[in-house]
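User: Design a sequence. Structure:
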């Protein structure tokens, strides 16, 4: 009988917690892969600061992917910051390439 309330609670939520965890993992993995693409492109253009910043972002997010489990609303805030940083670094690289090509 002690397992009954736990099973009822698991039936109530279904697979939602697992889907949420998988969605977090996909999002973090996407930021890591995007950072690696940014680093490789910046490396080809010899933009060492962007290579360094991309590496810091990739390592930070990879550590969060391996170690952390999102348990609060702050995890979403951190993910949004990582995505915005990746976008800003990518935009900086694009502008630098456009200015250099002109």
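Assistant: Done.
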């Amino acid at each position: 009988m002690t397992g009954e309330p736990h099973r009822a609670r698991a039936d109530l939520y279904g697979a939602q917690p697992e889907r949420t965890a998988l969605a977090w993992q996909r999002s973090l993995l996407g930021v890591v892969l995007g950072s690696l693409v940014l680093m490789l492109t910046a490396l080809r253009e010899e933009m060492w600061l962007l290579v360094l910043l991309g590496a810091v972002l990739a390592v930070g997010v990879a550590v969060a992917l391996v170690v952390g489990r999102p348990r609060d609303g702050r995890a979403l805030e951190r993910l949004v910051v990582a995505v915005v940083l990746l976008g800003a670094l990518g935009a900086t690289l694009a502008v630098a390439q456009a200015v250099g090509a002109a």
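Residues 36-102 form one domain. The two ends are 74 Å apart (CA to CA).
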